[in-house]
Amino acid sequence: MPIAQSVPPRLKFTYPPRGWLLAAAVLVYLLFGNLGHDPWKGDDAVHIGVAKSMLDRGDWLVPYLAGELFTDYPPLYFWAAKLTAILLGWLLPLHDAFRMASVLFAVAMFGCLAATAHALVGSTKDDANGSISVMIAIGTLGFLAPFHEAQPLLAVLAAQAMAMLGLVRALKIPWRGGMVFGAGVGLAYLSGGFSHALMVAPLALLLPALAPAWRERKTLSGLLAGLLVGLSVIGLHCVLLQLLDPGAFATWLEQEAAELQPKAGMHTLLAKVAVTLPWFAWPALPIAAWALWCERHKLRSPAVALPLAAFALALVCIAVAGNSRNAALLPLAPPLILLATGHAKTMRRGLANAFDWFGMMSMTFFMALIWIGYIAMATGWPSRLARQAVRIEPGFVLQVSVFDVALGIAITAAWLFLIFSGTRSNCRGTVHWAAGICAFWALAMTLWVQWVDYGRSYRPVSKSLAAAIDSRAGCIAGRDLGDSQRASFYYFDGIVTQREIERNSLPCPMLLVQQNGRRAEEPPGATWRKIWEGRRRGDRNEMYRLYVQD
């Protein structure tokens, strides 16, 4: 009689992942890209410059950027960045320590979304909707860049998710939920100002009008008490700012008032949102549309009314503010994620399989491109691709690292192992898409970070400029300098420029001019002599020139 051979069980993953697997996915997603590179041109450099100013000045109330009042955002994000720098500055480069504030707020948003999804659409103790909401959030394409830079809007998203959690909790525990909602309103103001507080505060009045679940007397009382808490936070900040720095308060209040006034061209902005949102909110948007179709007869239920109201309110506030940048659309994503969560597992089998195959094939393809590009930069083959990489960033030479290659191989192997294992599930496509985003981003930030950093960092320009200034005394006037440039020069070498309000109006012995485009040099006048010029490596658009007055 033949002896039966024992076959070792095949390792399978549960869908969606939970516990330490979910925590590992979140950490991989957030840490790769937030660590290991200089401040990059754009929001990253600007907000790291503001955090550095707050750290240097010892001020906790008023944000500054290179000696100038910064009124784009209130101080909450910069408080957190200053604290992470104090706690982690001994371990990490200062800019990486500042970015840990982004990691904290992103984790807070994930946690609040998961708790809201569990309370809103969960039915059992082991319900997986919280994990699904986190995986949809990780896979959201519009989150990829902002979640990996110093970005105050991440604090807005955390506050928005907290406010939605409070609204759901208020249905069962009115006063406790109301306090959580009020904290969300207050934090939304401290992180984004009046315009972002208005994205969540009116929900306390809007939801009872739309959904019967919030019309219970105790629920209304809890929400109104929470709203008073949020308004108290707003009032306290305004009073402190007025007492301690009346000039800063007047400037900031003027900008906030201008932001709340409707702008011309609102229809153009809404048209841009309609074009941008399908890719920006992928895959939350199509799954949310499917959920809305499935729940079309239950639009007044809490699971539908809350995300719809939050989305509509955020869209109105974005349209009124008139901000056309992609980052301004971030508050539209959490409500869509919440709406999509309950039906990520109810997609029809054919649609779920198509989404799964699309995610696996597209992410595998893009990861292959990352490897091909790295090989080209390291070996010069394929030659055309290698020449293109050098053409974009002239002078770049890749420093091949055995550790980077080994880590890249491990990331790729983990991705291939994942897609060839696991159980059948309708939410498998959502999980594979999120895991693919994690793997693709981690691989890109491992193998390509040198190349990207080479082109987007202002460190070499700043060092060269600082050497030209050297021992020269006196202030430096800045002409046409952008915030990214001012922030970078201040962060790397402590260079502070005074903004030139009118041409030749500042009594400074030095003048730093930024010229965009390929126009011929425009000297500031006969009394000025150029002593330095420079540009970022590979940047054919920006040129910087330093003049001294004879």
Mind explaining what this structure looks like?
The protein is mainly α and 550 residues long. It folds into three domains: 41-251, no CATH class; 349-456, no CATH class; 459-549. The chain is 61% helix and 6% strand. It has helices spanning 19-31, 43-57, 76-88, 94-121, 129-139, 153-169, 174-192, 194-197, 203-210, 217-244, 246-259, 266-280, 284-294, 302-321, 333-341, 349-379, 383-392, 402-419, 428-447, 449-456, 459-469, 483-493; strands spanning 64-65, 68-69, 476-479, 498-499, 510-516, 528-534, 542-549. The protein has a five-stranded mixed beta sheet with strand order 4-3-5-7-6, with helices on one face. Helix 5 (129-139) packs across helix 19.
Total separate domains: 3
How many strands, which pairing sense, and closed or not: the largest β-sheet?
5 strands, mixed
Question: Given the structure, what is the number of helices?
Answer: 22
Estimated structural class:
mainly alpha
Strand content: 5-15%
Low-pLDDT parts are: 1-11
Instruction: Kindly report how far apart the N and C termini lie.
Output: 104 Å
Helix amount: 55-70%
> What general outline do the C-alpha atoms trace?
globular
Record field, number of beta strands: 7
Please give the radius of gyration in angstroms. 26 Å
- The sequence of SSEs as H and E is HHEEHHHHHHHHHHHHHHHHHHHEHEEEE
Task: Provide mean pLDDT, rounded.
Answer: 90
Describe the strand arrangement of the main beta sheet, using strand numbers. 4-3-5-7-6
